[in-house]
Write a structure and sequence with these properties.
Strand order of the largest sheet: 3-2-1-4-5-7-6
CATH architecture: 3-Layer(aba) Sandwich
CATH class: Alpha Beta
Shape: globular
Strand content: 5-15%
Distance between the termini: 27 Å
CATH topology: Rossmann fold
Number of strands: 7
Number of helices: 10
Bound molecules: S-adenosylmethionine
CATH superfamily: Vaccinia Virus protein VP39
Helix content: 40-55%
Length: 291
């Protein structure tokens, strides 16, 4: 049964990763922030492009990723990695500018604050693990970054499970009811998210309350011609899976006019929790990660 589940996840993760790569490169932004970058190979891929890439993640991840990538792309200063905590605004600004505190200039002036230049920030695989208070902090910081530096924030974290379930439905076609039931029970327990961005009825209100405007773009629009995870499928199944991506959206967010969120400062995320999760995911989706 797990063998049937796994292709569904692999397809979704590969599609998300590849579509975001394409969107970033076609967006016209010269600077992109990958928060969290995890162990993906995006920095290596972008080292062949004319784009400034900031990979950001918790310190333990950066400690592993940064030297591995540096080894491969020696001398490319457009690619850099930074230890941050997404719930801590100062750490994000410091990563972008080299400033020790926002507003105070440090030794490396990495990014100017001209909003015309802008940042394209992508978030893949983090928001589902946040509590409501952590989520609010991250949203508040993203809005503030966009106001200060200009740009857009993109995620599809809140549509990931919907996409996975629809892909599984396609893959399960023709299976008997008992197997389908077993799969449904198995997947229902996999993701239990407790924040408002993951409640389909609440997400848009929540984004608005946080002072952001959202435009939803079908992931299909940025899907590459080829996905490795679809290679073994019949053309008919391949097409059916690709169709799913017309109904799964990237949420493209920009600051809304005249709104300002009112969010209390609350506790941070535990790095340990993340480590358990990323170790597990690296084993499950090896194609996308650096080894
Ligand atoms: C499931 S991984 C996703 C990584 C990558 N974007 C991908 O698609 O593979 C989640 C990542 O979020 C990072 N993370 C968790 N909490 C964080 C925080 N407060 N600040 C920055 N990164 C965080 C973890 O360290 C981990 O690398």
């Amino acid at each position: 049964m797990l063998q049937k589940l796994r292709p569904g996840f692999n397809i979704m993760i590969e599609a998300r990763f590849s579509a975001a790569n394409r969107l970033i490169l076609e967006s016209g932004f010269s600077r992109t922030v990958d928060l969290p970058c995890g162990y993906t190979s995006r920095g290596i891929r972008f080292s062949r492009e004319d784009i400034r890439y900031f990979g950001m993640d918790l310190p333990a991840v950066i400690d592993a990723v940064a030297p591995a990538v540096r080894e491969l792309i020696r001398g490319n200063e457009r690619i850099s990695y930074h230890a941050v905590d997404a719930t801590n605004y100062t750490s994000l600004v410091r990563a972008l500018t080299g400033e020790k505190e926002p507003g105070r200039r440090g030794s490396i002036d990495q990014v100017n604050r001209d909003p015309k230049e802008g940042l394209l920030i992508t978030t893949e695989g983090m928001l589902m693990n946040l509590t409501q208070s952590e989520l609010e902090q991250v949203f508040m910081h993203m809005r503030r970054l966009l106001l200060e530096f200009g740009g857009k924030w993109i995620t599809m974290d809140n549509e990931l499970v919907k996409g996975q379930n629809r892909i599984l439905e396609v893959l399960m076609e023709g299976e008997d009811e008992a197997v389908r039931g077993q799969i449904a029970r198995k997947t229902a327990g996999l993701f239990r998210v407790e924040n408002r961005f993951f409640d389909e009825n609440e997400a848009e209100h929540f984004v608005g309350e946080m002072g952001l405007r959202v435009e939803k773009v079908p992931l299909y629009d940025y899907l590459p011609e080829q996905l490795h995870s679809l290679e073994q499928m019949s053309d008919e199944k391949k097409q059916a899976v690709r169709e799913v991506f017309k109904k799964v959206n990237l949420w493209v967010m920009t600051p809304g006019e005249g709104q300002s969120p009112n969010v209390p400062v609350r506790k941070r995320i535990s790095a340990h929790r993340w480590h358990a999760l990323t170790g597990h995911l690296k084993l499950r989706f090896p194609g996308v990660w650096i080894h």
